[in-house]
C-alpha cells in the first residue's frame, strides 16, 4: 500500500474545524489541536488534487467514443480545471510559485491516482466521483482554519463540480445491470481506504495515529463518511 504520510515534515500552523457544507451535517462543528499544515502547503496540495481530477477526466474523454459520455466528462473536467486555476490564483496571492508548491505532492498524488484508476471507464468515473467528493469535503473542512484565505478557498471548493451527468451515467449503469452494481459497489469500498489515507496524511498525527489527536479527528472522518454514504445511496450503491 502506498504511504500517504507526506506532510509529516511540515510544521503545524492552523486549527482545523469542520463546518457544515451541503451534504455534511449542520450539527457537525469540531475543533481539535493544531494538526493542519501551513497555508502554502495546503494550497499546493489542494491545487494539485484538482489538476489530477482534470487529467483523469480528460484521459477518459479521449478513451470514450460515446458523445453523451464525452459531454458528461467534459463538464466535470472543466469544473476541476476552473477550481485548479482559482487555487493557483490564491497561491500567487501568497507571492509563491504554484509549480514549486505543487511539486512535493506530484509523486504521492500521482501514485494515488495510479492506485485508484479503474480497469474500465465506469470504474474510473466512479473513482473521480468518490475520491473527489471525499477530498473536496475534507479540504473544505481544513479551509476554516486559514482566515480570509480559507474563506476564499472554501468558495472555490463549493463551486459547482458539474458531476451530475457523470453520476447519472453511473446510476443508469447500476440500475440496468446487477453485475455492474456488484462490481462498482466493491470498487467504491476499495477506493475509500486509499482516499482516507490521503486525508489522514495531510494531518500531523504522532506515531501510528492512535493517540489523543487521532481520537480528536474521528468526528471529522465520521462526518466525511456520512456524506460519502449519501453519495453512494444516490447512485444506488451500498456504502
From TrEMBL:
<dbReference type="InterPro" id="IPR012347">
    <property type="entry name" value="Ferritin-like"/>
</dbReference>
<dbReference type="Pfam" id="PF13794">
    <property type="entry name" value="MiaE_2"/>
</dbReference>
<protein>
    <submittedName>
        <fullName>Ferritin-like domain-containing protein</fullName>
    </submittedName>
</protein>
<feature type="domain" description="Ferritin-like">
    <location>
        <begin position="41"/>
        <end position="197"/>
    </location>
</feature>
<dbReference type="InterPro" id="IPR059125">
    <property type="entry name" value="Ferritin_actino"/>
</dbReference>
